[in-house]
Amino acid sequence: MKRILVLVHGAWATPHVWRHWRQRFEAGGWHVVAPALRHHDGEPLSPHPDLAALSVEDYAEDLAARIVRLPAKPVVVGHGMGGVLALKMAARGLVAGSVL
What is the spatial order of strands in the sheet that 30-33 belongs to? Predict the structure, then answer.
């Protein structure tokens, strides 16, 4: 089984920010998952109207639900707010490692 890497983008970004890193890690044998945080799947300069109603805990719950469905504990790399989420996943014991 390939090692699993979850790349978590920050606020006002999309998974697209990981495109170059994703290629590099996949070439190195990792299975890479780069989910879009809730309401972050559109254009960063056109935020979803419900975005302001969400908390970091909402994002943490969404990410945790995704991680527990993976076949093994991943390494999570997070940038900006994604780093906070990576730390929260580590605190919950859901990851093999985290990079903030």
Answer: 30-33, 3-8, 75-78, 97-99
